[in-house]
Amino acid sequence: MHGHRHRWPGFADLTRCCVDPTRRAVPDPPRATPGLRPEPGGLTEMTAPAEDKTPYRFGPTTLVAELHEGYAQLEDGEETGVEVTVAGRLMLRRDQGKLAFGVLADQTGRIQLFAPQASTPDFDGFTSLHIGDWLGVTGEVIKTRRGELSVRVGSWVRLAEARLPFPDKWHGISDPDTRFRQRYVDLWVTDEARRVFTQRSRAVSLMRRWLEEQDFIEVETPVFHPIPGGAAANPFTTHHNALDLDLYLRIAPELYLKRLIVGGFERVFEIARVFRNEGLSTRHNPEFTMLELYQAYADYGDIMVLVEELVAHLAQELLGTTSVVYDGRELDLSAPWRRATMFDLLEEHSGLRVDMDTPRSELVGYCEERGIPVEGHHGVGKLILELYEKTTEAELWGPVFVTDYPKEVSPLARDHRTSPGLVERFEGIVAGREICNAFSELVDPDEQRARFGAQEADRAAGDDEAMVVDEDYLRALEYGLPPTGGLGIGVDRLVMLLGGVSAIRDVILFPTLRPEQG
RNA sequence: GCGCCUCUAGCUCAAUUGGCAGAGCAUCGGACUCUUAAUCCGCAGGUUCCGGGUUCGAGUCCCGGGGGGCGUACCA
Length: 518
Fold this sequence. Notes:
The protein is of the alpha+beta class. It has helices at residues 11-16, 44-47, 64-70, 123-127, 176-181, 183-189, 191-213, 254-262, 300-319, 342-350, 360-369, 380-391, 445-460, 471-478, 491-499, and strands at residues 79-96, 99-106, 109-116, 134-143, 149-160, 217-218, 224-225, 237-240, 245-249, 267-275, 287-296, 323-326, 329-332, 338-341, 400-406, 422-430, 433-440, 484-490.
């Protein structure tokens, strides 16, 4: 994840934009009583255990980023007369006899503490603070003679002790495993980690706001599914004792969201944690986040426009540009994206011209030539998809919408209005990776029942990821699903793309790991 | 699942053909009033991932196990 560090704004630059402007305290006049002590009249002193001297609350007036914004123009050695209160962790300390320097980090950045013995209360205590201790400091904003913006310590209080030593101040943590297990430390010592997760939070927030502006409403559907559906994947199982009921953790929210379209919520979305019982890799975590949305009266063409606009919007807001560099290669996310059929793209990249009338035996031959395993229940559609995925998908730098998938591999998508055997489905491919999957939704209950039936047959033939019939979903369709466009976006992978990182574990705060010590 | 690599002090890393397990940072003690990974002096810090084996002697070689990484497979 360190490959493109130079491209990204620094710690303070990046986080600056998350600062709530209503919290500004600089360069406003100082607060009447900057609170180094608990508010008077509280129960603090009565209830505090004798051995715990740390306060119960603290009132910083200023974020570090605001100091850097507000006082960038100070001359070396200039004093402002402005008193501020900041809080954070002590990340470095440099003692120099009767003068000590510290570096305090809060959520928004780092600021130097300037502590002369003559004016610092309990100077010995200050110089015996540990790296990692939480600290509250009130003092004047100054710039040192050597030009470092600082808070001259007028008073200070330790807010929490770091009993465990922090990692090497220069090298940080290098063992990825330790970084994931002790993310609470990683976030302090790896600027890149904090940058990425801050960015993730903003991306999700922007996504939500943008969808709401398009009149989508956010909903929450069950995580416990009596029948796992909406995707082809192995579910996790669990059990409810009182009902004596086996349940599955959802592999997709799709079928519930479409029930809501039936219910008359015409534009819905869910930012859904989903769970798939599969292997782990650089691009797979067993629990991950999908944005799914459904829009009544829309088809997959409308959804393509929505995706390219949404992604371009996120890039523009997050990075200030739709032109990003990923894996060292240029990537232009601005709309419109190229649209091409799976068949055309397959031909471009493999030279194979096939269609739904190509004999199965011929396709089996192409697969075998390329070492792609073929199973007995694979039909023409599945074989074409395999050929495309193995020869073409990773080569697509994109962004490109790959359209018109075989019906056989798309049991929830609506028949193509002009091409028999195909459905109106597309995937968005960016940097060789699928970031979304969408279709004109299948609305016909009889056709849906037939598709489920084909899935059952696949299951019987040994495909344990094939879908299971969901009678209630069919009943919902019988009440009438209007024309609907649906979309699923892998939020984690999108954040990877926008953040320029290549491992999904770098965008998931606490990725799934084997428990420590085994 | 398979293949390759890796695991040494709290952190980052050394240790010659198999020959007394070391340094920097952090911690602890001391010096220092403008440092920027401050600097300088000193103390302490170890089940070398675990268990076997070979050897006079194993961090090092062999076998087994465990953790992790990468690749591959799986993955709509």
